[in-house]
Amino acid sequence: MRITLFEQAPYRYLPADFEERFDSVCDTPYALVDPRRMYESMRSFLDELMVGARSGFDALLVTEHGQSAYDVMPNPDIVAGALAYATELEGLNVGIMPLGRTLGKTHEPVRVAEEYAQLDVMSGGRLIAGFPVGLGYDVTINNGVPPIEARGRYEENLDLVLRAWSDPAPFPWNGRYSRYPQVNIWPRPLQSRPPLWVTGIGNPHTMQMTLDRDFGFNYFGFSGAKLTGKRIFPRFWELVERSGLPANPYRVGFLQTIAVADTDAEADRRYAEHAEYAFRKGLGSIPSHLLGIPGGIDIQGLRAVFADPGDVGMSRQMRGASYRELVAAGAVIAGSPETVAEQLFAFCQEHRIGNLHAMLGFGSLPTELVRDNIQLFAEAVAPRLRRLWSDTDYAHHWWPERLGGSPITTTAAPAAKSDNRNERTVA
Amino acid sequence: MSTSLLSVRREAVTVLGGRLTVEVQIAGAGAPLVYLHQAGGFGWDPLLRHLTERYTVHVPEFPGTSPDDPPAIRQVVDWSDLVLAYQEVIGQLGLQRPVLVGASFGGMLAADLAAHFPELPGRVVLLAPLGLWLDEAPVVNWNAVAPDKLPALLFHNLSSDLVQAVLQLPTDPEQMRARMVARIWAYGCSGKFVWPFPEHGLRRRLHRITAPVLLMWGRQDRIIDVQYAKEFTAVVGDCTTAVLEECGHLIQLDQPQLTMATLDNFLA
Predict the structure, then answer these.
(1) Fewer Cβ neighbours under 10 Å: the N or C end of chain A?
(2) Which residues of chain A have pLDDT under 70?
(3) Coiled coil where (chain B) (predicted)?
(4) Does the distance separating the beta carbons of A307 and B74 come in below 8 Å?
(5) CA atoms within 13 A of residue A285's CA, in its CB half-sphere
(6) Which residue, B219, B194, B193, is CA-closest to B82?
């Protein structure tokens, strides 16, 4: 089992009555911010990730969210660059995993290919590259992309990035969404192809795409994995079986918010207030209509969601959720090392999860408590989880070679064409 | 709204070199009229029924909104494709200088058709059209508005029987879901030309319109402020402008009688 450290970069000092006074965490007036405290929030976030790197986590994960108070991360590659160099300096063999640059929204796909390639070189081949489609409001409102074009733009940009990494000769790219007379990026990734991961919310189309292209599949348990896990993971493994692929647990990543203390009672005492901040003033304050902007989900997807909305878990209740409700839904797993390890082990075993992304800093949690959470998890929880899957013969094909992985060397991506305007259904 | 008393036939027209088939609903008898519907879809409302008494009313369903062909929208690559597709539809239907009526999103399309092809329409009626942009009065993007806040933005006379009937969802859960899915998808399809702005350079082409234009706007339009009426009036050569009092964005549903009377007067 690979165990990674994930954090978002929230501004940690939003007013207590934020969710009563403001509609959304996606258009928060910057006037609420004290610049000194923004610096503190960002500095603590980076320091905490480095604590994780020194505590033996297998990788450091960050996400991309523009114009958002709950994750101040307009470009995760900047943070990943800082981490790549700092960990090289300290000789820390840890993966750098932006989850990552959002290809459905980007107007500069070659820039994404360049940034990731540079990260891989800077880190000496430790990049694990994430490529999400993007969230509705970020794609459309922050970046002006029509929602119905997000998926087509994503697929075209992905083809372009993979070709920019691998084509030995300069080539022209006459795409539907971007056009470059010459693509010939410097540097290229150090790895023959960095491991690729896609984050999905349960759409079988996205799951199947990760199988067809041999990417890893990430699922975030924010909306309550006790509610949604039994829906999402069996769906994924059924597609794996139907595709005739081995049920290799390492092709799945699972992200979970976790709060560890010496005892269950101490965990509740320490973390309740900050977990409520994280969900109420974070994900719970993203209005559902800004995630589901018309056009972003195709009509078959809409029919499926309306017929059975179970994949959204407790998302709609999150804005007023109490700590107890968050724990009951599994949005947060909290308690003593024994309690937490037992729950995580059972969950990861049941759903064949080979990569656990532990979210150990969240919301307004003060940096001292985040560090405690990271260190206690690393010392007392992670060792109990690592043995999971170690007795199987599965190789980790979605992990850098330098970090013990056996990456796939041949690209599984469909061959990209220089003029693909007539070869795909547009949008 | 029921079509029970109205005899509607359908015709499928293939355009864009075979790439796209547009379904056209046709009702009434008389001189040709083409109606371009608003972003959320289409129903035979009282204004359109009224028009069928004197005109053969043709309503092309926006690509993607025909029940049997949701992916059709993917064949329309850009705004230019859309304008050309509608010009070809009208040509293939064999309509000679039809009255061209467009509401809201359909108004933007009607205005640009008339600007690209000045000889195409006999007359043009624009009901609170999109198509221009003023930084000081941003058009509200209904796609990003919470669904429960939308009715108050679209209508002034929220409590009228007609508006209530339009807003009413079916009580049968399956029918209700189907209606909601169809509406969201319709907004998604037209949304292809709404993001980032419902503006495709129309201002630079408006002067090309030669047909007489009737421009109608609701004084209480909370989607596109009534000051946009002045922008159209200033550039369009032969423009009759009517601002309706006590009227919101979807004019023909908010003030059906007034809309019909103004339109009849213009077309007389």
Answers:
(1) N
(2) 409-427
(3) none
(4) no
(5) 26
(6) B193
What CATH number did the domain enclosing A28 receive?
Answer: 3.20.20.30
Q: Kindly list the residues from chain B whose CB atom is less than 8 angstroms away from the CB atom of residue A297.
A: 188
Can you tell me the distance from the alpha carbon of A140 to that of A131, in angstroms, rounded to the nearest whole number? Answer: 17
Rounded Cα–Cα distance for residues A150 and A142 (Å): 13
Q: First and final CA of chain A: distance in angstroms?
A: 38
Q: How far is CA A39 from the centre of its chain?
A: 23
* Residue listed under structure tokens 């994930």: A6
Average pLDDT, chain B: 97
E strands, A210-337, in order: 216-220, 252-260, 332-335
Q: What's the whole-model pTM score?
A: 0.94
Q: Are B113 and B122 in contact (CB under 8 A)?
A: no
- Chain B positions in Cβ-Cβ contact with residue A144 (cut-off 8 Å): 195-196
- A333 domain-assigned: yes
CA distance A425 to chain B (A): 6
B219 within domain boundaries: yes
User: Domain span at residue A333?
Assistant: 2-403
Distance CA B73, CA B192 (A): 9
How many distinct structural domains can be found in chain B? 1
CB atoms B192 and A140 under 8 Å:
no
User: How confident is the model at residue B44, as a pLDDT?
Assistant: 97
Q: Does B173 touch chain A (CB under 8 A)?
A: no
Q: How far is CA B34 from CA A215, A254, B58, B102, B258, in A?
A: 50, 54, 5, 8, 20
Residue A222, exposed/middle/buried by CB under 10 A (0-12, 13-18, 19+)? buried
Query: Checking DSSP bridges between strand B20-28 and strand B9-15, what pairing results, if any?
Result: antiparallel
DSSP code string of B7-48 = --EEEEEEEGGGTEEEEEEEEE-SEEEEEE--TT-----HHH
Chain A environment of B181 (Cβ under 8 Å): 299, 302-303, 306
Residue A116 belongs to some domain of the structure: yes
The 10 Å Cβ neighbour count of residue A213 is: 17
| pLDDT for the residue numbered A409 | 62
pLDDT band at B5 (very low <50, low <70, confident <90, very high): confident
Instruction: Supply the CATH number for residue B64's domain.
Output: 3.40.50.1820
Domain encompassing residue B231: 8-267
CA A244/CA B109 separation, integer angstroms: 49
The 10s digit of each residue's pLDDT in B71-115 is 999 999 999 999 999 999 999 999 999 999 999 999 999 999 999
The answer to the question of residue A253 being in a domain is yes
Residue A91 has which token pair? 């000789």
- Under a CB-based contact definition with an 8 Å cutoff, are residues B156 and B247 in contact? yes
Q: Is residue B3 part of a domain?
A: no
Closest C-alpha among A133, A125, A129 to residue A106: A133
ipTM over cut 0.90: yes
For residue B2, tell me if it sits in a domain: no
Strands B55-60 and B20-28: antiparallel
